[in-house]
Write a structure and sequence with these properties.
Radius of gyration: 24 Å
Number of strands: 2
Shape: globular
GO molecular function, one term: signaling receptor activity
Structural class: mainly alpha
Distance between the termini: 40 Å
Membrane topology: Lipid-anchor; GPI-anchor
InterPro entries: GDNF/GAS1, GDNF_alpha, GDNF_rcpt
Order of helices and strands: HHHHHHHHHHHHHHHEEHHHHH
Bound molecules: 2-acetamido-2-deoxy-beta-D-glucopyranose
Subcellular location: Cell membrane
Keywords: Cell membrane, Glycoprotein, GPI-anchor, Lipoprotein, Membrane, Receptor, Signal
Strand order of the largest sheet: 1-2
Length: 422
């Protein structure tokens, strides 16, 4: 009813599709189905897409039909529609997006085009994170301040939604671990996606990107996503195999396109990212968790992340394989984004509430000065670590880095070829 009203309004106000603002693909599809020509065109594209995913060769007439359908849609709002990261019926929306986009001709489209709305446009809702965090700092638990990962979990435990969804994936993902039967990876992935989609980012970002000083904390951080089930397989597959299984899945393909768009490194950029948006890159990284291409920390003592795959014995595809791996390993944009998140200063509100909720003045004084001192030494420590590692391994680091920067466009080309029509 409401939708019909909205559609009527949109139709009456916009004579042609071009005049419409960018809309979500579900609305754009509805709009298209109301128009008999657009409807027919869209149905044609669906069939082209279907044939493509089943690797059925099209005859000449069908190809022409698909091409004409593309050209016609090039005029409609469907072409410019996007999906929201936390929307209902997200899979349906993404399917529409890829139906329209997978049929584009070579070079017209590449995986750099995220199906997701620009993060800045999506509404941000206020959370009670700071107040809950202050409760934790002010309580006896402040003794754990040296383990920020534990603290982030405590804060999560104070939010009903956060603790519920975290407990949910943890119990799914740990089921079967250690016993004869293996865990259900698909369910574990779904649980993780649910957690990262539904829990406000204030919580998820701090849980995943907590700054650690020791290995105990680092181990906790590495285990956040229950890697035994969600990340590691018995043997490491080839990264191109991992990519293939990702591209077969609308959600994974979409998240990868989003990651590629928002975490694309740029040599000349001071923040390391071509989009200059660290928050968007972290959001895109978190979007990959719970897909067949789930990334994770690979050690207890560093913040390096990677995929569970290898490029050994890739033969003549070695270069392409390294490019896939290089999207996560040694990606300057992603590294910088994680680094800034981990060394983010407490917000003014957080500090203020810290004082306000403290049960005892002397305790508060101690913990505040200790944590401030440790925070500062930590920043200094990581800075020197970064500096030394950059100096000591300069030739290698720079060659890897420039390699990644050069190969990124060709990776896009490669991916677009994979996705190109018959
Ligand atoms: C759209 O196309 C489908 C399949 O061809 C058809 O069943 C349906 O009636 C059409 N709808 C409109 C509004 O034209
Ligand atoms: C695109 O829309 C314009 C104006 O509505 C129309 O004149 C033109 O023929 C359309 N092009 C195609 C390929 O349908
Ligand atoms: C958080 O809650 C879960 C489930 O209730 C519990 O197992 C876990 O120990 C709690 N963790 C912290 C750090 O309080
Ligand atoms: C992390 O630490 C645990 C406990 O010390 C150890 O068993 C595990 O192998 C370590 N993992 C990595 C990836 O370093």
């Amino acid at each position: 009813m409401w939708l019909a009203l909205l559609l009527g309004l949109l139709l009456s106000r916009a004579g042609d599709f071009l005049a419409l603002p960018r809309s979500d693909c579900i609305v754009a599809e509805q709009l298209c189905l109301l128009d008999s020509i657009c409807n027919a065109t869209y149905r044609t594209l669906e069939n082209c897409d279907l044939a493509k995913t089943r690797f059925i060769a099209l005859d000449h007439d069908s190809r022409v039909r698909c091409l004409n359908a593309e050209l016609y849609l090039g005029n409609s709002s469907l072409l410019h529609c996007k999906c929201h990261r936390r929307m209902k019926r997200q899979e349906h929306c993404l399917r529409i997006f890829w139906t329209v986009h997978s049929s584009m001709t070579d070079g017209y489209f590449n995986l750099e085009t995220s199906p997701y709305e620009n993060p800045a446009i999506e509404e941000h809702w206020k959370t009670d994170y700071n107040e809950l965090a202050a409760l934790v700092s002010g309580s006896q638990l402040a003794g754990d301040a040296t383990n920020p990962c534990l603290k982030a979990t405590h804060v999560c435990n104070l939010s009903k939604k956060c603790v519920r969804l975290r407990t949910e994936y943890a119990s799914i993902c740990t089921r079967g671990v250690g016993s004869e039967d293996t865990c259900d990876r698909r369910k574990c992935h779904r649980g993780l996606r649910n957690f990262f989609e539904k829990v406000p980012e204030d919580f998820t970002r701090r849980i995943l990107f907590c700054p650690c000083q020791d290995e105990l904390c680092g181990e906790r951080r590495r285990k956040t996503i229950v890697p035994d089930c969600s990340f590691q397989y018995s043997t490491k597959p080839n990264c191109l195999w991992l990519l293939d299984s990702c591209l077969e899945d609308h959600i994974c393909k979409s998240r990868l396109a989003d990651f590629q768009q928002n975490c694309q490194p740029a040599d000349m950029s001071s923040d390391g990212c071509s989009q200059h948006n660290h928050a968007a890159c972290l959001q895109a990284y978190m979007g990959m968790i719970g897909t067949p291409m789930t990334p994770n920390y690979i050690s207890n003592s560093s913040v390096e992340v990677s995929l569970w795959c290898t490029c050994e014995s890739s033969g003549n595809q070695k270069e392409k394989c390294d490019q896939i791996l290089g999207m996560f390993e040694g990606n300057k944009c992603l590294e910088n984004a994680i680094w800034s998140q981990m060394h983010q200063k407490l917000t003014g509100l957080e500090r203020q509430k810290d004082l306000y909720y403290s049960p005892s003045l002397s305790f508060q004084g101690d913990s505040a000065s200790t944590s401030l001192a440790s925070e500062m030494s930590q920043v200094a420590e990581v800075k020197t670590q970064q500096d030394t590692s950059e100096h000591s391994s300069l030739p290698m680091a720079s060659s890897v880095y420039s390699g990644a920067a050069v190969s990124w466009p060709s990776l896009l080309l490669f991916l677009s070829l994979l996705l190109s029509p018959l």
